[in-house]
Automatic annotation (TrEMBL):
Active site: 83, 117, 247
Protein name per Swiss-Prot or TrEMBL: Hydroxymethylglutaryl-CoA synthase
Record's keyword annotation contains Magnesium: no
Similarity comment: Belongs to the thiolase-like superfamily. HMG-CoA synthase family.
Length: 464
């Protein structure tokens, strides 16, 4: 039986192209601070015409295998979480098989999981469950979360983003799942959905989506606490965790969410918060759930009370989500990558609670216990390989006009066939995959930017 199953290794990829939210405010004629303070976002990453979820996934998987020295034959299950539909039948996973076929490994289980931003978590649970099951054949699981989040022009556009994250799953991991502590909430809601297959853009009810997120958070926390209490024989409160990591549509919602958990603690057990907090929160204790979601006064009071704890427990995980934007399935794990990046020297022995939300509606709160691990699967090496600072600093800022122009081209190309891209990979780092063409039968072809300075044809997809 595999012990201490969890995440052994991680790598992250996001496009080298981004736009500043402050510049977008001015360009859109929005009031100053609407995106930066109102949404809490700094910058937004996006794909240009040479990148998509497949190229980002190819890049992050090949990078992870190479940097951690993993033989492609050692992977026995590969699952992708994404809501970016490239094909209604062919999974993104099948494109990634090119990396494994090259080394003769076609014996790999798993396909794609889809439900808004939750697909990455579903894929992760599947891989963890596989390693913990009687079906496990001793090899690693590999999870990829990838999305390109884009919106039509309007108030939702600044909440886009793009990234791919790869996570290697196996026993004796530094990031161990406490699988018994897990609370889920699933229901049927139309808060955000993509029914129009001719468009990449979603149908969004922003206000409803925020309420659904907080409602799901309450429900998951209640189930999580109940399971913890049953198994541990004592009440759970935020003080039993060291860090809390949230799926981040935009940072302001993360701030609201943490203060919401604190309000939950107060309602369940007032002694879990200090006297000053009790005094501030007491006037709201008689609100019904529905009233509490709409109360601006509660929101303000609970955020004031929660601020010092938020800075300690949540803020270290907000770096990439604020800099890259909402990466849908990759968002939660980019936040977790931020925490490892910022705190890897002091995480040993800590408990991290993660909250995953996908519209429509699916949500789970789950727990990880952190060990330092053995090289190469240790926190300092994971942080070094992800190299978050360098990736953020080496990006190229586009002016809003150029960003809008790129979005128009992508709109025009969405679902199209028979075109060749510019193949301009000058902004891409060596080793990055990029889209070269889509032929008359909608088949997509990719190349890999050479590692050395001499131009060479990289590995090209579909035996092209």
């Amino acid at each position: 039986m595999a012990k201490n199953v969890g995440i052994l290794a991680m790598d992250i990829y996001f496009p080298p192209t981004c736009v500043q939210q402050e510049a977008m405010e001015a360009h859109d004629g929005a009031s100053k601070g609407k995106y930066t303070i109102g949404l809490g976002q700094d910058c937004m990453g996006f794909c240009t015409e040479v990148e998509d979820v497949i190229s980002m996934s190819l890049t992050v998987v090949s990078s992870l295998l190479e940097k951690y020295g993993i033989d492609a034959k050692q992977i026995g299950r590969l699952e992708v979480g994404s809501e970016t539909v490239i094909d209604k039948s062919k999974s993104i996973k099948t494109f990634l098989m090119q990396i494994f076929e090259a080394s003769g490994n076609t014996d790999i289980e798993g396909v794609d999981s889809t439900n808004a931003c939750y697909g990455g978590t579903a894929a992760l649970f599947n891989c963890v469950n596989w390693v913990e099951s009687s079906s496990w054949d001793g090899r690693y699981g590999l999870v990829v979360s990838t999305d390109s989040a884009v919106y039509a022009e309007g108030p939702a556009r600044p909440t886009g983003g793009a990234a791919a994250i790869a996570m290697l799953i196996g026993p004796d991991a530094p990031l161990v799942f406490e699988s018994k502590f897990r609370g889920s909430h699933m229901s049927h809601v139309y808060d955000f959905y993509k029914p129009n297959l001719a468009s990449e853009y979603p149908v969004v009810d922003g206000k409803l989506s925020q309420t659904c997120y907080l409602m799901a958070l309450d429900s998951c926390y209640k189930h999580f606490c109940h399971k913890y209490e049953k198994l541990e024989g004592k009440q759970f409160s935020l003080s039993d965790a060291d860090y809390i990591v949230f799926h981040s549509p935009y940072n302001k919602l993360v701030q609201k969410s943490f203060s919401r958990l604190m309000f939950n603690d107060f309602l369940r057990n007032a002694s879990s918060v200090d006297e000053a907090a009790k005094e501030k929160l007491a006037p709201f204790s008689s609100l019904s759930s529905d009233e509490s979601y709409q109360s601006r006064d509660l929101e303000k009071a609970s955020q004031q009370v929660a601020k010092p704890l938020y800075d300690a427990m949540v803020q270290p995980s907000t770096l990439i989500p604020k800099q890259v934007g909402n990466m849908y399935t990759a968002s939660l794990y980019a936040a977790f990558a931020s925490l490892i990046h910022n705190k890897h020297t002091s995480l040993g022995g800590n408990r991290v609670i993660l909250f995953s939300y996908g519209s429509g509606l699916t949500a789970t709160m789950f727990s990880l216990k952190i060990n330092d691990g053995q090289y190469p699967f240790c926190l300092s090496n994971i942080a070094a390989i992800m190299n978050v600072d360098k990736k953020l600093k080496s990006r190229h800022e586009f002016l809003p006009e150029k960003f809008v122009e790129t979005m128009k081209l992508m709109e025009h190309r969405y679902g199209a066939k028979d075109f060749v891209t510019s193949k301009d990979c000058s902004l891409l780092a060596p080793g990055t995959y990029y889209l070269t063409e889509v032929d008359s039968m909608y088949r997509r072809f990719y190349a890999k930017k050479a590692k050395d300075s001499h131009y060479e044809n990289g590995t090209v997809a579909n035996g092209h």
